[in-house]
């Protein structure tokens, strides 16, 4: 079934004319008596589109396909977030939370400092650029503060991670706390000169002979691999005396892994035919697979388990507020968008 398009409802100039000819803002929904209007929705739509880097004019042609698609994508979640925010802020006000004059002044000082606004004129200009008054800013900041306090005191403060939960997470997510083996190598690369016709056989043999001679100087002559790499290698790694790594064993080719498994630190491998020439490899270090003990991983585990529990507890909390609330939808298409938002979050009825 084709999903009904919500755009006409969301863009139509929906106002009613009162007896004296005054224009009254269209109310989309009332949440415990608090109204959410078409203008409120449009402001959130514009802000969301800006965050996504899309500069789209909501007053443009309603037949604009790009605009229709963008609004269909963002509006369901906007409505869920808006209703949930209203419920949380209402709960916070019931608990007596509010933004004091001193707190507001402190926030303003921080905003000015972080944005390097030295004069009141600069601050007012910034507000004007956002189409916002000081009262709008205070109202937004207060709603944010109240929402944070409600979540902290009503949800997060009641969450704890038990030792049993930490152990279960650790046992079922071992890979998250396991570091694969790593190797550090040194290399000397002797490239084979080529031309438009390809690699010359004589040049190939010469490069191989040169590489074998260098390997003998290391293995039987006792010369420093690092010194020869810095002097003779054609690889960019010569700048670091041929050093490569550390590399995860999982990130290297099966052939190279097989070669390294037969070596111990300090060993110099036989010549390797590389795409550009001949290579000598020396194994510097190799580390074994390491798994972080539970005690060391506990802080990370607590954060991850806490995050999962917070999401679950907040969902239960907000669903309870929705159940207790009186939500009056004034537009059925907008209600359908809200319900679509719940489905997207896996919260259907």
Which properties best describe this structure?
349 residues; alpha+beta; Triger factor/SurA peptide-binding fold; Chitinase A, domain 3; 2 domains; 4-stranded antiparallel β-sheet; 3-stranded antiparallel β-sheet; 12 helices; 53% helix; 16% strand; elongated; disordered N terminus
Structure overview:
With 349 residues, the chain is of the alpha+beta class. It has twelve helices and 13 strands. The strands form five sheets. It has a four-stranded antiparallel beta sheet, with helices on one face. Helix 2 crosses helix 3 (65-94), helix 3 packs across helix 6 and helix 7 (163-172) packs across helix 11 (294-324). The two termini are 20 Å apart. The model is unreliable at 1-23 (pLDDT under 50).
Summarize the SSE layout with pairings.
Blueprint: H1 7-11, E1 15-17, E2 23-25, E3 27-31, E4 34-37, H2 38-51, H3 65-94, H4 101-114, H5 120-129, H6 134-155, H7 163-172, E5 178-179, E6 182-191, E7 194-195, E8 198-199, H8 201-219, H9 225-232, E9 243-248, H10 254-261, E10 272-274, E11 277-286, E12 290-291, H11 294-324, E13 327-329, H12 332-344
Antiparallel strand pairs: 1-2, 3-4, 3-13, 5-12, 6-9, 6-11, 7-8, 10-11
Q: What's this model, at a glance?
A:
By secondary structure, the chain is α+β, with helices and mostly antiparallel strands. Helices cover 53% and strands 16% of the residues.
**SS strand fraction:** 15-25%
Strand pairing plus helix content: what structural class? Answer: alpha+beta
Assign a percent range to the helix content: 40-55%
- Trace the largest sheet across and list its strands: 9-6-11-10
Q: How many beta strands in the DSSP annotation? A: 13
Tell me the series of helices and strands, N- to C-terminal. Answer: HEEEEHHHHHHEEEEHHEHEEEHEH
CATH class wording of the largest domain: Mainly Alpha
Rg, rounded, reads 33 Å
- How far apart lie the N and C ends? 20 Å
Average pLDDT score: 85
């Amino acid at each position: 079934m084709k999903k009904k398009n919500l755009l006409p409802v969301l863009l139509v100039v929906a106002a009613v004319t009162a007896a004296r000819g005054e224009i009254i803002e269209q109310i989309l929904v009332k949440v415990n008596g608090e109204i959410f209007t078409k203008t409120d929705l449009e402001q959130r739509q514009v802000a969301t589109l800006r965050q996504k880097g899309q500069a789209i004019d909501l007053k443009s042609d309603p037949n604009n396909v790009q605009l229709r698609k963008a609004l269909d994508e963002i509006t369901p979640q906007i409505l869920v977030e808006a209703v949930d925010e209203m419920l949380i802020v209402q709960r916070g006000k019931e608990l007596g939370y509010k933004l004091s004059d001193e707190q507001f002044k402190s926030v303003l000082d921080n905003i000015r400092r972080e944005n390097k606004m030295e004069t009141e004129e600069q601050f007012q200009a910034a507000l004007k650029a956002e189409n916002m008054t000081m009262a709008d800013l205070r109202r937004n900041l207060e709603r944010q503060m109240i929402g944070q306090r409600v979540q902290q005191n009503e949800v997060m403060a009641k969450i704890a991670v038990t030792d049993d939960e930490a152990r279960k997470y650790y046992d079922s997510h071992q890979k998250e706390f396991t570091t694969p083996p790593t190797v550090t190598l040194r290399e000397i690369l002797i490239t084979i000169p080529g031309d438009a016709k390809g690699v010359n056989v004589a040049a190939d043999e010469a490069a191989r002979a040169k590489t074998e001679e260098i390997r003998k100087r290391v293995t039987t002559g006792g010369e420093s691999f690092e010194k020869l790499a810095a002097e003779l290698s054609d690889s960019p790694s010569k700048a670091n005396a041929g050093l490569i790594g550390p590399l995860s064993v999982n990130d290297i080719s099966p052939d190279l892994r097989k070669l390294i498994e037969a070596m111990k630190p300090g060993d110099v491998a036989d010549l390797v035919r590389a795409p550009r020439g001949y290579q000598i490899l020396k194994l510097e270090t190799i580390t074994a697979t390491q798994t972080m003990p539970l005690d060391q991983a506990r802080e990370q585990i607590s954060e991850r388990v806490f995050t999962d529990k917070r999401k679950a507890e907040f969902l239960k909390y907000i669903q309870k507020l929705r159940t207790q609330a009186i939500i009056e939808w004034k537009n059925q298409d907008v209600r359908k968008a809200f319900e679509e938002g719940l489905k997207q979050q896996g919260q259907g009825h």
